[in-house]
Amino acid sequence: MFEHVKDDVLPFEQFIYRLLTYLAIAILLLALAVIPGVMTFHLFFELPLTEAFINAVSLLGSLPVPHPLTSHGGHVFTALYNLFIETTVLLALGTLFSPIVHRVLHKMHLQTEQDE
């Protein structure tokens, strides 16, 4: 998906398009990761959908849940879902920044080739 090391750097307009594509992938990844949390909070712990969504999104932002669960199973689920959602945030950030890092490294490589 990225250009080869011997190719020229992608034009800026195409780079912006690539960056927006990866932004959409990162947002989709985060949206898909919130769904299991919302559904579990709603179906198993009987929170209304709005409160279930707020709990899941709060964990996405590393905030404490505003509607804490009182059962032991609720605490275990919240801890495990928090690990899952934080890992997903890191994956989304990696997805978002990969075109930028690739472009910087590609430019540095071309500069070192031109200097030799």
Structure description:
The protein has a single domain (12-109), classed as Helix Hairpins (Orthogonal Bundle). Helices cover 76% and strands 0% of the residues. The chain has helices at 12-43, 49-60, 72-115. The longest helix has 44 residues, at 72-115.
Measured by DSSP, the beta-strand proportion falls in under 5%
C-alpha termini separation: 28 Å
Summarize the amount of helix as a percent range.
over 70%
Count of individual helical segments:
3
CATH topology: Helix Hairpins
Q: Which structural category fits the helices and strands?
A: mainly alpha
CATH class: Mainly Alpha
Order of helices and strands: HHH
Number of strands: 0
- The backbone outline, from C-alpha atoms, is elongated
Rg over C-alpha atoms, rounded to the nearest angstrom: 20 Å
Counted up, domains total 1
Mean pLDDT: 89
Q: Can you tell me the residue ranges where pLDDT is under 50 for at least 5 consecutive residues?
A: none
- Biggest sheet architecture: none
CATH architecture: Orthogonal Bundle
